[in-house]
Amino acid sequence: DTGVSQNPRHKITKRGQNVTFRCDPISEHNRLYWYRQTLGQGPEFLTYFQNEAQLEKSRLLSDRFSAERPKGSFSTLEIQRTEQGDSAMYLCASSSKTGLSYEQYFGPGTRLTVT
Amino acid sequence: DQQVKQNSPSLSVQEGRISILNCDYTNSMFDYFLWYKKYPAEGPTFLISISSIKDKNEDGRFTVFLNKSAKHLSLHIVPSQPGDSAVYFCAAPRGGSQGNLIFGKGTKLSVKP
Lengths: 115, 113
What we know:
Structural class of chain A: mainly beta
Strand content of chain B: over 45%
Radius of gyration of chain B: 13 Å
Largest sheet of chain B: 6 strands, mixed
Helix content of chain B: under 10%
Largest interface: A-B, 26 and 26 residues
Largest sheet of chain A: 7 strands, mixed
Structural class of chain B: mainly beta
Oligomer: heterodimer
Number of helices of chain B: 0
Order of helices and strands of chain A: EEEEEEEEEEE
Shape of chain A: globular
Distance between the termini of chain A: 36 Å
């Protein structure tokens, strides 16, 4: 078990550019979540997949954001036409559907800076 | 509205003493709570959890207490160690089958040698 991995770890982009982040969950986990964390705040939920199906999207996820999880394995989060307000840490987490456990396991995050 | 609140942004304790981190919630439908620890430049790490059917859960130096009537939970770390210095987040699953977590803003714990 290698844990949740995210790439890249850091991304600096200019306003208006598109960026894409990748998340590889723990292999046996069927649930995958994306969160965003800004300074002084806790992680905020963005979207959730169960296998390849995207089951929920937060209102924080504007139409510039899109996420996919083809084949229910890795996931990508794309931000189009980035804005300075998109600067944040983007966290991916995964979990397995087991009983009453709500534990989610987080990756190291991708820090996005929009200049 | 903030459904999970951590009103103390920071806490400083001496090594060997007890650290008590507090968390309040507003949604009485929450039935499970988790604590995460986060070091700089890393993702949050799961620490300990508690179901609403319990009022205490213990794991080594870490104990979480739940007071449902007060909608309050606390994390006790005894004895505190310098390696415990981190930001601690309280979280609750939003509910339903999805279980996406609602986090507090975190409390930064500093344990001084």
